[in-house]
Predict the structure.
Amino acid sequence: MATLLALFGIPLAGAVVLAFFGARPRAAMLNAAFSFGTLAMAILVALRVVADGAFLAFNQQLFIDPLNVFLVTLTAFVGFTTALFSGPYMEEERGRGKMTPPRMRLYHAMYQLFTLTMLVALTTNNMGLLWVAMEAATLTTVLLVSVYRTAASLEAAWKYFILCGVGIAQALFGTILLYLAADRVLGEGAGALLWTNLSTVKAQLEPTIMALAFVFLLVGYGTKVGLVPLHSWLPDAHAEGPTPISAVLSGLLLNVALYALLRCKVLADAALHSRLPGNMMIGFGLLSVVTAAFFLSRQKDVKRMFAYSSIEHMGLMTFAFGLGGPVANFAGLLHMTVHSLIKSSIFFAVGHAAQRAGTQAIDGIRGLLTISPAVGWGLMLGSLAILGMPPFGVFASEFLILTTAMHALPWTTPVLLLALGVAFAGVFQRVQPMVFGETSVARLKHQPALLPVFAHLGLGLMLGFYIPPYLTGWYRQAAAMIGG
Amino acid sequence: MVNLISQLINLFASVLLIVAFAMLSQRRILSLIHLFTLQGATLVVATVLIAYSTGQTHLYVSAAMTLLLKVILIPLLLHRLINRLNVRWDIETLFNIPTLMLIGIGVVILSFYLASAISNLSATIVRSTLGIALAIVLLSFMMMITRAKAVPQVIGFLSMENGLFFAATAGVYGMPMIVELGIALDVLVGILILGVFMFQIRERFDSLDVNHLEKLKEN
């Protein structure tokens, strides 16, 4: 109980403290320290779940099970490494006059609050609070995206706010319908929105209501996952905000939104006694993979390009969870993990590279290897990893997804392979001259933080070779829980 | 008595729907804010009536919250906002209002169709209201799409939230208290952020026309 309180208390305290001291010279270290505290608490909570299994807390409002505790740990871990990366990166931005002391305070405070909202969304047992936390996560990131106050960042943030606001309003309507279905079975009162209660009666929920509820929930949370055609906020928000925020948006927030969708799918699956929810996810997923792969190769801005790559990979995960079953779910969860690790490491490398070159345009970044071999190799290896080259973990999960698709839905396999091929050609062709060849980039004043880049890549590589047994067990349990 | 009250609830539900149509076609920003306040007030009355007829005491609390937030606080903020931004007398050009109305009617029919399957299952006294709530949500959505100015877009957003609140009140006698508090907090924080945003947008673009916000396009 104390650990759980600390898990939420540390980022909350961090937000308050950094709102006052976020512009001090040591603020970045303080930010990282708070994130490290959160990570330590997340690990303690995870250890408890590994030892004792799922548990409820705070008057049943919190529910920690293998599915969400693994995402909690991942969120806290990437939150911590991104805070490490953010230190020298934001110091450099400040040196260039993009950040002022009030903006630094806002940035650091919102960074901690954003972590808090994601942790609440992941651990809450109440489907209504899940919605509240997702909306709060949008609000905090809107401020982070617009922190530079440039014309482009304001536009991106406005679009992000309006589109995600409208999207998430659909999810609220879905939640209301879910409550309507639930109170026919569970009776009125606060207990009817608790996921643990819902999952015990999920087979008795009224199918007509649940079908409509799931459509609204899919559209609502799907907007936040970045599923095509609801994705148009995503590339802008990724490209115009500070790079550490692009890393946590891609690596974490999209995962949390997909998690919310999964919780809803479990209920809808059982209530409908049909494959409708899964098929809808397969459709959205496939459309996202294909569309994103083709858009990817038309981008001129490197952060936009990798934002489209995130849409592609979120689509692939949605597709995998739509297929359902132990193998596809396992692959989806593995893909969530490796994508989150590798995509954030790519954004770290891209951030340093863009600062050196003074531009985010792909054409403006040339020959990273000459000036900084570490950043160059980080970007190259990260790109190869995200494109699904063995031996990185993405290869393993994509391989599992493709083989399952071959059995369950053979016609989708060539489509997926084509999209992955197009994405490969598009990204590789653009990253190659950025890393090799004549250089166009300058040295930086601040020593970049490269440890997070290679730590993430190392973990991604390890997951390709060897998944520790407790992690496998964890994935299996979570995969069984999602069912389908 | 119960019959009379359920008639009254239906009456106020239809007032909400009419207000949503009026908002869709209203071109003056000031009148739009008045309509939004009226929508909030109608919502409060409808909530109190539902609370009285069903004996759900927690609905009185959410009615009070709605009164405070959507009838007093947010309209006050909006008035201050349009004064400070100096857009109080702004009139927007909306093309082809009759077509807009016709599409709106189509949207209402669609909502009733979608909701009819559920309304028959709903145990609450007010059956047809779920369709009205969905119609308000979709009409507000339409309003957001058709507007080019920032303030009306935000009012559309808030009106959508009103529709959702009505769906919750009429369909399931309100969400659990903790959830409603969370939603109210999100809405309040959201409107404050949007207010700050509008000043930044105007500072940057010298206008509140959202059409300026179309530089980020696919190449």
